[in-house]
Amino acid sequence: MSTAVKVSDNLIIKAKIKSKVFKRSIAGQIEYWASIGQVIEENPDLPLPFIQEILIAKEQINAGLGTSYVFGEGE
User: Fold this and answer.
1) Are 22 and 29 in contact (CB under 8 A)?
2) What is the tens place of the pLDDT at every residue in 7-57?
3) Which has the closest alpha carbon to 29: 20, 38, 39, 40?
4) This prediction's pTM
C-alpha cells in the first residue's frame, strides 16, 4: 500500500542527486534512507558501514551467493 507524504523540497533535491548515483527512483532513495534510519535507531551501537555490510550480506544470501559459517572452522 502506498501513501502520499509531503516532504521538503530540499529532501527531494538531495534524493534526486543520490537516486541518480545509486540508480534508484526518488521514492526508492527516500525509502532506503528511511529503512537505514530505522535500523540505526534500533541498533544505536552499530556504525553505519557495519549495518550496510549486514544488509548487503543478507541480500547476497537471498540471491544464493552466501555460504554458511561454521563456528570453530578456520581457527
Assistant:
1) yes
2) 999 999 999 999 999 999 999 999 999 999 999 999 999 999 999 998 888
3) 20
4) 0.73
